[in-house]
User: Fold Oligoendopeptidase F from candidate division WOR-3 bacterium JGI_Cruoil_03_44_89.
Amino acid sequence: MEKAKGVNWDLTFLYDSLRDKKIKEDLEKAKQLADKFEEKYRGRIAAESLTPAVLETALKDIEKVYSLMIKTRSFSHLRFAENTGNMDAQSLLLNLQKEGAEIQNKLVFFNLELLDIPDETFKSLVDSKQLASYKYWLLNLRKWKPYKLSEKEEQIINIKDITGKNANVQLHDEYTASFKFPIEIEGEVKTPTESEVVALFSSDDRDLRKRAFDSFFDVFGENSLVLASIFNTLINDHFLECKRRGIEDVMETAYIRDNVSKELIDTLMGVVRDNYPLVQRYYKLKAGLLNLKKLEGYDRLAPVAKEVKIPFEDGKKMVVNAYTDFDGEFGTRIERFFDEKWIDAEIRPKKESGAFCAGILPELHPAVLANYNDRLEDVFTIAHELGHGVHDLYAGEVQSLLTYHPPLVLAETASIFGEMLLTDKLIKEANTDELKKKVLARQLEDVFNTVSRQVMYVLFEKEAHGISRKRKLSKEELSELWGKFEGELYGDSINPHPKQNYYWARVGHFFFENFYCYAYAFGQLFVLGLYRQYLNKGEDFIPLYKDLLRAGGQFPPAIVGKNIGIDLTKPDFWHGGFDYVKNLIDELEKLA
Ligand SMILES: [Zn+2]
Assistant:
């Protein structure tokens, strides 16, 4: 079976079709419920007399409104993703977004009133048994209390953001999406898009990699004046808003978003930085694997071994077996995705690229989209997305909507854990050194790209934010900063390309969300530590792990760690993840 032909999902568990009457009915119902909600609760939440029973009912009521909105929107989104040329899905999606924003506006008062509940009352509410499952959700929301502005000011910010911050983000997206990267491919000058040119960085043709790299950085260099200006505007906007709200540390908003403390993130980033030498050790080893004296910038993503072709049925077996070896119940859940058509893996024209798992509602099963292209990487993608899927299934058993999704830094727990199960199984069973090499290098580069490199991004971002308080950063200055931090990461293991310091200009996260990237490092390193627990404890680990998944987004990361016997505030825990990395490098060294 080529490219997962015929592996399609069945979405009738949501609605029969885009023309299903029930879609409109559900949307109407959501509107009515939102109106009723406002009538019933406006002015009643921010009150000394608020009881746990009333707040619990309010939370359940708002979950009902959100559920209907999510169900309708998910259906149109999934229909659109399977075929982006589907105009009916597109127009339904747009319509639902518009209607959704109106419903959302009616509910805004609720969160604002939650911030205004008198302290004493709030304390007794979160300590009540009745609200136990919402406790940390409420506590995290309350962190905004000291930073809240008046309703008028909040409204003005919202309005001014449309032509200010959001317009700049939009400009960045449209501007960079218009970039063409001229490059000679097979004797002809072509102009691939950004994602196509980035894909060429992993080509096994070294000269092609070099040409792709040259073209990529030429284009970003030529456009860096505009991008530097947008970047300056955005970080200044953030600084000024923080100042107005009385937020001293510009990273505070990210800590609240992720429900973590500054100390925790500082510890994590410190440990990652201490382990930079491991990154350098690996890339020196990689030079040897590629028969090079030293890597150039354009060799960093080069493949270390030949591609192997893996038909879908074989890939599926590999994934199911990796999970089943870990735990029978896990395996059964993974199989349901295939047997009950919860996954769409076939490659079709106009289908959305990439992969995702949509955890829709706690009472429904998730839906997974992937584009299976018969490569080893695609097998890992399936293992990754089904990891999310199993996470959603467990969380759905216990949680209600508001606490269903894990916080950002833990969102990748089950997906990365699943990739590690597959990695270990493939290493153990690999029948050729080529395959083993490929799996080891893949895992190592994954860790270095999501942990070490992402932390480097945040270090750069932090310094840029600091300087921008005093003056505008020129494109040269930004590039110099980038060179400093990237140079620290790779040391003398990679020769930097003369123009690669323009890389700051292409990191989308810097432009659409401040200090996002440490979340990747957190997630990956957390799982490496978790995996070590599994290797140490064996079967005893499994029930604890299932509880962790069932907790969904109920607890902040520090408590999730504590519940499974991990103290996230200790540097030792984070260092432990790198011990696993060290072992992989040792193994790879033996093969080299
Ligand atoms: Zn993921």
About this structure: Residues 2-144 form a domain with the Butyryl-CoA Dehydrogenase, subunit A; domain 3 fold (CATH 1.20.140.70).
